[in-house]
Please model this.
Amino acid sequence: MKILSSRRSSSAAGFTLIEMLVVLGIMGIVMVVSYPSIMNTLAVRDLDNATRQVQTFLQMTKHQAVSSKLVHRVRFYQPFGAAWSYDMERREADGSWVRAQPNVPPKTIPPGFNVTISFRVVGADREASFSPMGTFPGEAVFTAFGTFPSFDPTQNSIALQSPKLQRLDQMDERVLSVFMGGTIAYAKRKSA
Model:
């Protein structure tokens, strides 16, 4: 009797090899099934993060323009044809532009995205400028009729598009549009 009771207690205390293999097999199936969903979630998160970083930088530039009472801009450029980079600059009294944050390195949009920038073209660069009142573009002024003669509604956005999400037939594009009053809108859409 003593031998029989010790066998029951030792078998109840552990797992058999077959039970362990069954559990590992189930875990493997769950991982294989959930992998595409995990990859989709990561691609969406990367696109949203890159777009929000640009949006925050635009808002920070607008705030700097208002607090310093100087025209500020975000200059988008491609150094040596690489990924798009952007930096904050302010206009000096002589009309020249200087970096507003000389100790902060320029930001870069990750190279895995297709970028379409429809801000004003200056040489090979694009710029989004804000006036000391926070209006967009920085050169815009009210006329006697209350209009912004220098505002061009076709030159006020940046779009980031993810080829990964496009292949998955998802909402693969994030668009930031800047309006006359300096408001920055964020939109998700499916590219054409």
About this structure: The mean pLDDT is 85. The chain has one domain: 2-189. Strands lie at 72-77, 85-91, 97-99, 107-108, 114-117, 120-122, 125-130, 157-161, 173-178, 184-189.
